[in-house]
Amino acid sequence: MNKEILLLMSCGILLVMTGVYMLVLYRNLLRLIIGVEVVAKGVTLVFLAAGVYRQDIGLIQALLVTFIIVETVLAAIMLALVIRAQKIYGSLDIRNLSKLRG
Amino acid sequence: MLLWVLLVLMVLLSVGCCIFKDLLYVAVSLATISAILALVLFMFGANIAGVFELSVCAGLITVLFIATVSLTKDSDQKGETRLPAYFVPLVILIFVGIDYFIIQHFMHAIPPAAIPQPSGTFQKVFWELRSADILGQLGLIFAGVFGILSLFRVVTKEKKHE
């Protein structure tokens, strides 16, 4: 396989793992959202690697644009939720969001 | 060589996102990751996706993050992580090992791509082949707008009751 594709894939996988690490180990809500964003960057790189592999950049660009829009809407909604949570609970620590317990 | 430098920089900045304590630095690191990703997209000829990445992810999302950080300034920053910060490089090294294992053992098993059949230019793919995606994107944007409006409408109602 092309060296560039392997490089893109490995960097994408590494970014996904770093993002998952942030999602698992951090307790601040904003850090969790940044973890989701880092995962999204990794997925974008893997998408690009797939496009280079298939030599079909046109199709992958269309998918990437859709993905970027999904990512933006997700980030906006999550950040709005964070502001609401901070107003209600006075904290962004996920341990303090006690009303969310089942 | 340039691709190597850019990708290593991306990984280092993502490690920075884990290490930095100030959330503003973390937001700026994320914006820089987006900008570098846009450069990588440009390098591979994905110009339109690169422009979207640069303007939306590096621009808009960063502004939203910084606004949120400043709006939630007084929140507690202590005890954010379950592991101390000096464990992060060690964990990243373990991740690099896992990544190397995955690339060595699984990626080489993927067969070479068949004769490429490009779907066409971005405009053709976006407006003709994947036109249903546009409907989904419009739906998502409206869902986002109405979601945020409904979240903040509750605040104004509460204020009126007070």
At a glance:
With 102 residues, chain A is mostly helical. In chain A, 80% of the residues lie in helices and 0% in strands. Among the domains of chain B are: 1-72; 121-152.
What does this structure look like?
The complex is a heterodimer of chains A (102) and B (162). Chain A has helices spanning 3-25, 29-54, 57-89. Chain A is built from three helices and no strands. Chain A is an all-alpha fold and 102 residues long. Helices cover 80% and strands 0% of the residues of chain A. Chain B is 75% helix and 0% strand. Chain B starts with a helix and ends with a helix. The chains are: A mainly alpha (102), B mainly alpha (162). At the A-B interface, helix 1, helix 2 and helix 3 of A face helix 1, helix 2, helix 3, helix 4 and helix 5 of B.
Q: Give the N-to-C terminal Cα separation of chain B.
A: 61 Å
In helices, the fraction of residues of chain A equals: over 70%
Largest sheet data of chain A: none
Helix count from the secondary structure assignment of chain B: 6
The radius of gyration computed from the alpha-carbon positions of chain A, rounded to a whole number of angstroms, is 17 Å
CATH topology of chain A, what is it called? Helix Hairpins
Radius of gyration of chain B: 21 Å
Seen as an oligomer or otherwise, the chain set is: heterodimer
- What pair of chains forms the biggest interface? A-B, 67 and 84 residues
CATH class of chain A: Mainly Alpha
CATH architecture of chain A: Orthogonal Bundle
SS-based structural class of chain B?
mainly alpha
Give the tally of β-strands of chain B: 0
Number of strands of chain A: 0
What is the percentage of strand-forming residues of chain B? under 5%
Helical amount of chain B: over 70%
- Quick one: biggest sheet of chain B? none
Low-confidence stretches of chain B: none
Give the CA-based shape of chain A: elongated
Rounded to the nearest angstrom, the distance between the terminal CA atoms of chain A is: 49 Å
